[in-house]
Design brief:
eight-stranded mixed beta sheet, 434 Repressor (Amino-terminal Domain), five-stranded antiparallel beta sheet, alpha+beta, single chain, about 800 residues
């Protein structure tokens, strides 16, 4: 090939890349297709794909990928020339009427690199504004607004309503917009390591960083940033710069705020109180509410190491400060905050801090500060602690990572566990503003579908250190199943049979988002417990705890599809250890219901049930499901893949965008941690049998956690039974949501049962990306397992060690 041909080929490749990166917003794609009178099936046939795939492109749920992406971009470009949007159409009447753009319930689907701009917040829902919700008491540790984010396609959360109370004046634009973050280069004092991201685009010219060119940079950067989503929804002017920003110091020594989407703002604040006031008055950070009765999310500022130094904060906490979790009250920055008329919550100034002014009417004025150097983003939740090759993340990339999580889940509130619990409240707010028909004034009312009050606890449902057990048992008494509800995940392992030892491999499969999947459709109690005595009849519609003897349940007598399973090779579904019960024990409703499903009589001795019920966790599940599925689609693993195609896509995803891999890990940790927070334990905060802060939350509900974990175990056992009856294969170890099977080959396809046409047998484990389906966690040999048993004396669970990918199953 000649030099000229090489040059033209390189230019063609650039043009194709531009075409692939310049797709109109999802609603505009649908408008162009409908304007041309084309069906989704016609477009799919032309692009050699499925109609459902085209529908997902038009809803924003997924984005097209090569080779279809370039062809799709070309089609849309030609249609846009023939059918311009109404606001850009020429005076002449077009030959084909142009319909109005269709509204889209989904946000612009997936995150762009750091040089692009974030998805805008959804427009407020039409209709009258709701009454203003009562403002939280100043200084209260519960003064945290419901963190909103655009609901993904399929989510059940209602569209955000107009903001209650007066909105802040539009005012001048926030301090200079510095252009795309990629133009800034490496910042002095980058944020702590959270992973790596592919390099961002070239960004604005270097002159945009100089004071003389800031006005031009502002004019050039903003419209380009908002262009991709302009046809979808209007940007809420209060939050036009996204939910959060990373504050750092650039190479010129100026304090800057890296926003989601690559925008960079100059920060004029010289002190921390001034930084808070600038954020409230000018930065335009935050997110709309997730529920019409909720509250908008407070803006979040992540302080990089250089920003800590600039604002007089220590680079790290002293041992005493780490134990206390905060700076001392006499620290100069804490005093500055008090002198400025600002307030801290009862937690003080720690890794996650809320600083606020008194509310203006119903409008909160609160900023959340996160300090990664003090442990705000622990590696076990937000980072990848297994790969030391990942360099420190630049502030712009950190903003992209956290911003993507905020848009898909919610603005972080602390650890992923705390955020998971806050997400429940944001989607099911406990209170609403209600107008008194007599006086015309607004008052606080409770929502029927939420957890609203503290109720009496049940002795069998609480952990050992709970105050209700004080004096009830000796200090080191080991409570029995008849005294304590022991609904926990599986931790079970058994020896291999001679036949299983002849199979060379042990293959581990992992259930996707097992805790979230078990919460889907689960009926939970919304009120206090009612004690039933005198052998009450079992009612599967009543959530709660039942004292019942299930020791008579013999799995060897259970027939599945006319076949009898080998009960000795399956764990009991009624205990976390897999051992058969020996007498009466407390169980959650899903466990007792499964015993009856297997065909056995159940005769409870007593029970604690809740009579006001609801599917409280459904919107929480849907929000996390959509976040998980969207992020996996970004990594190249879509819901239409199965079998070997799914396994291949999963293998490729490990080398895809590292920042999105961290988003995925955070989403999974949010699901698992949120369920765990329903029964948050003392953890040494206060002496044994003394109340700890979590007990004051209406969301401290150990009975709901127990029901979710019972659902995880029951769902797995049901599929184990079906798999054993269909293919005659049995697990040898289970660790939480990972199962290990002997296999003739190294792939899950070598032992999972399939129909003659290659489809998974209904009711068995199915490979796929959706929550509740399974993925390949790893493969080891039988010889390796025998060595492990020898080294650990035979009492050992190999389930969590069979990992080809060390990140597999983390956070689930």
């Amino acid at each position: 090939m000649s030099t000229e041909d090489q040059l033209f080929s390189a230019v063609d490749a650039l043009l194709e890349q531009v075409a692939q990166n310049d797709l109109p917003a999802p609603a505009e794609r649908r408008r162009l297709r409908e304007a041309a009178g084309l069906s989704q099936a016609q477009v799919a046939a032309a692009l050699n794909t499925r109609r459902e795939t085209v529908a997902s492109w038009e809803s924003g749920r997924n984005e097209p990928r090569p080779p279809q992406r370039a062809a799709y971009a070309r089609l849309l470009e030609r249609l846009a020339e023939r059918f311009p949007a109404p606001d850009t159409a020429p005076p002449a009447t077009p030959s084909v009427p142009v319909p109005a753009p269709a509204p889209s319930a989904a946000p612009a689907s997936l995150p762009a690199p750091a040089s692009a701009v974030p998805n805008p917040a959804p427009a407020p829902a039409p209709g009258p504004a709701p009454a203003p919700a009562p403002a939280p008491a100043p200084g209260s540790p519960t003064a945290s607004g419901a963190t909103p984010a655009p609901a993904p396609a399929g989510a059940s959360a209602p569209a955000p309503a107009p903001v209650a109370g007066p909105a802040p004046a539009a005012g001048p634009a926030p301090a200079a917009v510095r252009g795309p973050a990629a133009a800034q280069g490496p910042a002095r004092g980058s944020a702590p390591a959270v992973g790596a991201v592919p390099p961002a685009g070239s960004g604005a010219p270097a002159s945009a960083r100089r004071p003389a060119a800031r006005k031009a940079a502002q004019k050039a950067a903003r419209p380009a940033a908002r262009k991709p989503a302009a046809a979808t929804t209007a940007v809420d002017p209060r939050f036009e710069n996204g939910p959060l920003a990373v504050v750092d110091v650039d190479e010129d020594g100026r304090v800057v705020a890296y926003c989601v989407g690559g925008l960079v703002l100059d920060v004029p604040a010289k002190s921390l109180p001034a930084l808070v006031d600038w954020t409230l008055a000018e930065a335009r950070l935050g997110q709309p509410r997730l529920h019409r009765h909720g509250r908008d999310a407070d803006p979040v500022l992540v302080l990089a190491a250089a920003a800590l130094e600039r604002y007089g904060l220590p680079a790290e906490l002293s041992p005493e400060e780490r134990r206390a979790g905060r700076l001392p009250a006499g620290h100069k920055v804490v005093k500055q905050i008090a002198r400025a008329g600002l307030h801290l919550t009862q937690r003080g100034f720690g890794a996650w801090t809320r600083v606020y002014r008194e509310p203006e009417g119903s409008r909160r004025r609160c900023v959340q500060l996160a300090v990664p150097a003090w442990g705000a983003l622990p590696a076990e939740e937000w980072d990848d602690r297994h790969d030391p090759r990942l360099p420190a993340m630049h502030a712009a990339d950190l903003a992209r990572f956290l911003g993507t999580y905020a848009e898909r889940v919610m603005t972080p509130r602390g650890t992923t566990a705390v955020t998971g619990l806050e997400l429940m409240t944001a989607l099911r707010p406990p209170t609403r503003a209600e107008k008194d028909p007599a006086t015309g004034e607004f008052r606080q009312a409770f929502n029927d579908d939420a957890l609203t009050r503290l109720y009496d606890v049940v002795e069998c449902e609480v952990p050992d250190e709970h105050p209700v057990l004080k004096g009830r048992f000796p200090r080191h008494h080991q409570r029995t199943p008849a005294e304590m509800l022991m609904e926990e995940p599986y931790n079970w392992c058994r020896p291999l049979t001679d036949d299983e030892c002849m199979r060379p491999y042990l293959v581990a499969i992992d259930v996707n988002m097992a805790f979230a999947a078990a919460a889907n459709g689960l009926t939970v109690g919304l009120d206090g417990p009612e004690h039933l005595t005198g052998n009450p009849p079992f009612d599967p519609a009543l959530p709660g705890s039942w004292l019942v003897d299930l020791s008579h349940v013999d799995l060897g007598r259970v027939r599945v599809d006319g076949r009898t399973v080998d009960a000795d090779r399956l764990p009991s579904p009624f205990t976390p250890t897999g051992e058969r019960p020996t007498g009466p024990a407390w169980y959650a409703t899903p466990t007792v219901a499964y015993a009856r499903e297997l065909g056995f009589d159940v005769a409870p001795l007593e029970a604690y049930v809740r009579t006001r019920t609801g599917r409280y966790l459904d919107p929480w599940y849907k929000r996390l499901r959509d976040a998980y599925v969207s992020t996996m689609a970004d990594l190249g693993v879509t819901t239409d893949l199965g079998g070997q195609d799914f396994l291949d896509a999963m293998a490729r995803s490990r080398d895809a965008d590292p920042a999105l891999a961290l988003v995925l890990k955070a989403v999974k940790a949010t699901a698992k941690g949120g369920i765990g927070k329903l029964r948050q334990r003392n953890r040494g905060q206060v002496p044994y049998y003394e109340p700890w802060p979590a007990l004051e939350r209406p969301t401290w509900r150990p009975d709901i956690r127990a029901a979710v974990l019972a659902g995880v175990r029951v769902s797995m056992h049901r599929k184990m039974m079906k798999t054993a009856a269909t293919a005659g294969v049995y697990p040898v170890a289970i660790g939480t949501d990972a199962l290990v099977y002997p296999s003739p080959g190294p792939s899950p396809l070598d032992f999972l049962p399939h129909t003659p046409d290659g489809r998974p047998v209904p009711g068995t484990f199915r490979l796929g990306v959706s929550p509740g389906m399974v993925k390949h966690q790893g493969t080891e040999t039988v010889l390796w397992a025998e060595q492990q048993f020898e080294e650990h004396g035979g009492v050992f669970n190999i389930a969590n060690l069979v990992k080809t990918d060390r990140n597999a199953g983390e956070g689930e």
